Amino acid sequence: GIEKLMEDKVPQTTIDRGNWGSRIGFILAAAGSAVGLGNIWRFPYVTGQNGGAAFVIIYIIFVVAIGLPVMISEFSVGRRTRLNPVGAFRLLAPKSGWFILGMLGVITGIGILSYYSVIAGWTCGYFIKTVWGQFSSTTFTSAQSEQIFTQFVSNPLSNIVYLFLFLLMTLLVVIGGVSSGIERSVKVMMPLLVLLLLILTLRSVTLPGAEEGLRFYLKPDFSKLTPNAIALALGQALFSLSLGMGAMITYGSYLSKNDEIVSSAAWVCLFDTLVAVLAGFLVFPALFAMGLDPASGPGLVFVVLPTIFPHMAFGNIFGAGFFLLLALAALTSTISLLEVAVAYMVDEKKWRRVPAAILMSAFAFILGIPSALSFGGIGLFTKLPGVGLGFLDLMNILLGNYSLTIGAFFISIFAGYKWGIHAVRSEAENSGKGFPFFRSWSFLIRFICPVAIFVIFAYILITRNYF
Ligand code: TRP
Questions:
Q1: Atom 10 in ligand 1: which residue has the minimum CA distance?
Q2: What is the pTM of this model?
Q3: Which of 31, 86, 320, 393 could form a disulfide with 130 if both were Cys (CB 3.0 to 4.6 A apart)?
Q4: What local confidence, expressed as pLDDT, does residue 2 receive?
């Protein structure tokens, strides 16, 4: 019947693009993409600066009302077309400008990969430092820790070497392909990550003086909930859930027709949020136990945590475990950033996976160099003339924030109005399990997502508040 006709409109790809081996493999890969530096490095310090639990509440509202509906849409577009974002929009909206949204996603992915890998590289450097016992003297002060951090990030050579190493690890996984590279590695890395996170958090909340940190984290300070903090919460939610650039379209494109979309998306959102909230329970108690400032910004986990290790039993193991945890979380995220561009080259340009992955990671490496130098080395990149920001910060604002916000806005328009809510529903219902909360989803995707994202983005542009 009509279903069959619609099915026939989707051409079967001649090349073997790959497929997830199991639903749990897919959920772990998507959760691996979502859980990253955004959860463990960024979420705690942004929360610390913006009202603790009050910020967390707003954040969770955005995850449910905006993140989840957009993720369902991305998965559906991906599975329907079984293509990368460019091909997917071209197929569903032929002879229109929608493919540009996919293009923006591919470019954004490589851009985010380039600077994200710089910070991911720091986690490797800190892992090595901890193993070598650089943070084991009991007289180690926060001033010394600060100095080690500044020295480390301002060293151009080590930054570039670690950037290279991290991209190489990402490349090696992606070269392996969807099920034998990505899926197989996340199946090992994700359980390890959860285990490490639980052990470390347990240690942190049982430190003497931890209660004060718990009180800070759990006590909402609504006076800090400025419009700016609300905008930050939205940006954080999109970034943390890997939305707005087609990473979830790409991962959805490797799904089989009878896997459930709605419940998978719900699991990924739940898991990502749990890890972020748990990271708060890891960082704040340890921080307060040492009498340090919760609002200390991006250096939080790199400066503050090493001062805690020497005062703990098995501090070196705790420390090395922590940075290993961060590195693993980052790796399962960079994999997804690279995979979008690789899928694009494979589907649209008919390249083979291996050369495509090498070329795209080489791009990310070259583009990452100015970011690697933006904490010292070459003065130009530490503070761009006329911008007043470092190169990495600027990339993060333009790509990690603006581009994802624009992307999420248009994806919700696409799902809600262009391709349409009933097309999404019919795709999601392929599993035979129906579409739970379809009416709520369609209301959110048509009205709440576009309006809320538009208002917040307009506010950011008008006030020109960089964050
Ligand atoms: N979500 C990851 C984090 O929280 C980063 C990430 C991976 C990402 N893939 C993405 C962000 C795609 C935006 C889009 O660290």
A1: 242
A2: 0.94
A3: 320
A4: 52
